[in-house]
C-alpha cells in the first residue's frame, strides 16, 4: 500500500514576477470577484472593472498591487488561462439588426452582443443557449455570441439538465471538427491491423453491464488451459486506436475528460459514433481491444499475465440482473463460466479486504422516469455479486497495468503515468471521528496505516445492523481523502494497492486513454516522457469533480421535483448532517434529502450545535438531534429553482419527553411509505 502522504504542491509567487498569481475567480452576486489561489491564506479582491473578460469559475492570472496595512490584497486579471464555460442559457432581447443575450446566471456577468448572423432562427424573448465566439478582449467591447440552440420552455426538465451541464463547464455539443473526424472513421477493421494483434475471437467472451447501457467498455473471456489453470481475459475497448493525439477529437475528449451521467441522459466524453458504435464491445461483432490476460488458479492466484492489443468477438451481452439470477439459481446461459468467475471474484474480494482494503458499502439511488423525464419513483440499487464480479476483475486489471508501468524507468526516472492515487486519512479528520466512534465502543489502532484500515473494517463489521451503522459509515467516508489522478505514485489507500490506475473505461474517462497510450509506448519500446502528464492528471481530476457536482445537482433537481408530489405529507427519515442553522434529513422511502431549519425548531426549544458529537442539543429540554437518528418530517417546500427541499420536524408520540420538554404539537400522522460506481 502507498504509505506516503501526498505532498501537495501549492501555487506560490512566480519568482520572476513576484506580484503575479494563478487561481480561480469566484464572482459574488454583488459583482465583486475574489481569486482563490492555492497556498494563499486570503483571496485576492478584483473589482468588476479589472475582470478583463474573466467570468465566474475561470482560471486566471492576476497581478496584485502593493499590500496596504489592514487592507485586503487587490489585483487585476491580466490573462484568462482557462474558461470554465463558453456556452450559456438565457434570453434574447432583440433590436434592429442585433440582439443582446441576458444570461440566467445567478452570478454577475455582462450582456452578450448577438449579431443578426448569429440569430440562427431565434426570435425576441426566446430562451436560448449561446456560445461566445469573441470575448472582445482586443477591442475592449462586449463579448460576441451566436445562438446554438433554441430551448423548449415547456420542457422545464430539459432546460434544467442543460443548465446544470453548462454551469459545470460541460458543453452541450461537440465541436464540428471533432464530429467530422468521428464520422470519417470507418468501422471496417483492416487485415493489416488484425495481424498486429493477438486473436481471441474464438474464445468465449461476454459483456456484463447495466440493462440500459450502450457503451460497453469491457468484456471478459475465459477458457480452461491444459495445465488445469484458467485463462481469464479482461478486454477493454481500444479507444486510443481511434482517438489519436493532437486531433480535434482528442482535444474535445480531453476538454471534457469524462462522461457525465444525469438521471435522464448521458453527456458522453466522445461522440456517439465512437462511444456507442466503433468502440462499444457489442455482441457478435469483431472489436479492437487492449487486454490484460491472466493465467489463474480456481482460487484466484495469478500465475502469470500478459498485456497487449487484441481483437475479440463477444458471444453474449448480459445485464447485471441476468448474471445475478444465474449466480442465485445456478443455471442459465454460460452458467458454468459465470459461476466460476463469480467464485474467483469473491476470493479476490476477500483477499483484498484481508490485505487492508476498506469495506465501505455503497448504495446507488436512481429515479424511474416517464418519457418527459418526470420522476415516477425511486429505485435503490445495492451492490450485488454480479456487480462485484465485474468490479474485482477490473480492479485486478487496473492494478497489474499500474504495477508493470511503475517498474519502467526513463533516464533513471519513472515514466510519467496517470496513476489513480488515494492518500491516507488526514489526522485532522480522523481524530474527531475516532473520538465519536469510541462513544459506541469502537477503538482504533493508529500505529500504522494498515492498522487504521483494519480498525475501520472491524468497526464496520461490528456496527452492521446496529442503530449507529449508518452514521459511522457516512462519517467514516467523510474522513477519507479524495482519490485523484497524479504522476506521483503514492498508492491507493482505500483499495489497499501499492500501484493502481484507471485503464478499464476509456470510452468514458480520459485518464484511461492516457494510460493506454503510455502502455502501448512501453510495450513497443517507444517510451516517451510526457512533461505535461501531471497537468493532464490535474485537469482530469478537476473535470471528474465537476461531473460529480453536475450529477449531484441533477439528482437533487429530481428529488425536489419528485417530492413536490408529497407537500404536507409526513415520512420517516434519518438525520444525514447537522449544522448551526439546522439539520438535514434523508427520507427512508425515497432517499431524498431536505433541510429542517433551526428557525422551524424555535417553537420547541433553543438548539445549539455540538460539533464533537455531530448533533444539535436543546438548551431547556436537552433534546438531541444527531446524525443517524431516526425522525419524522413533514415536506413543507420544494423549490426547483434553488434545487432545495424544506422539511419540518414532527414531534411524534414515540419521542420520549423530558419534564421540561416542549409540549407535543398536535398533528395528523400519515402512513409512512417504506422502501423495501467503483474505482474500477
The low-confidence parts are: 1-13, 655-677
Q: Give the averaged pLDDT, no decimals.
A: 89
Number of helices: 14
Biggest sheet strand order reads 11-18-17-14-13-12-19
The class by helix and strand makeup works out as alpha+beta
**Beta strand count:** 33
Helical content stands at: 25-40%
Alpha carbon gap, first and last residue: 17 Å
Report the portion of residues in β strands. 25-35%
Radius of gyration: 27 Å
- Sheet with the most strands, sense and barrel status: 7 strands, mixed
Inertia-based shape:
globular
Describe this structure in words.
The chain is of the alpha+beta class. Among the domains are: 20-82, OB fold (Dihydrolipoamide Acetyltransferase, E2P) (Beta Barrel), CATH 2.40.50; 179-403, no CATH class; 424-480, no CATH class; 567-650, Beta Barrel (OB fold (Dihydrolipoamide Acetyltransferase, E2P)). The chain has a seven-stranded mixed β-sheet with strand order 11-18-17-14-13-12-19. A five-stranded antiparallel β-sheet has the order 3-2-1-4-5, with no helix packed on it. α1 (156-167) runs antiparallel to α14 (533-563) and α10 packs antiparallel against α12.
Map the helices and strands.
Blueprint: E1 20-27, E2 33-36, E3 44-46, E4 59-64, E5 75-82, E6 87-94, E7 98-103, E8 112-115, E9 127-134, E10 144-150, H1 156-167, H2 176-184, H3 191-195, E11 198-199, E12 205-209, E13 218-224, E14 230-237, H4 239-242, H5 248-256, E15 260-262, E16 265-267, H6 272-278, E17 286-296, E18 302-313, E19 316-319, H7 320-329, H8 335-354, E20 363-369, E21 375-382, H9 385-406, E22 409-410, E23 413-414, E24 419-421, H10 427-438, H11 449-463, H12 469-479, E25 484-486, H13 510-523, H14 533-563, E26 570-579, E27 582-587, E28 593-597, E29 607-610, E30 615-618, E31 624-626, E32 630-639, E33 644-650
Parallel strand pairs: 11-18, 12-19, 28-33
Antiparallel strand pairs: 1-2, 1-4, 2-3, 4-5, 6-7, 6-9, 7-8, 9-10, 12-13, 13-14, 14-17, 15-16, 17-18, 20-21, 22-23, 24-25, 26-27, 26-32, 27-28, 29-30, 30-31, 32-33
Helix pairs in contact: 1-14, 2-5, 8-9, 10-12, 11-12
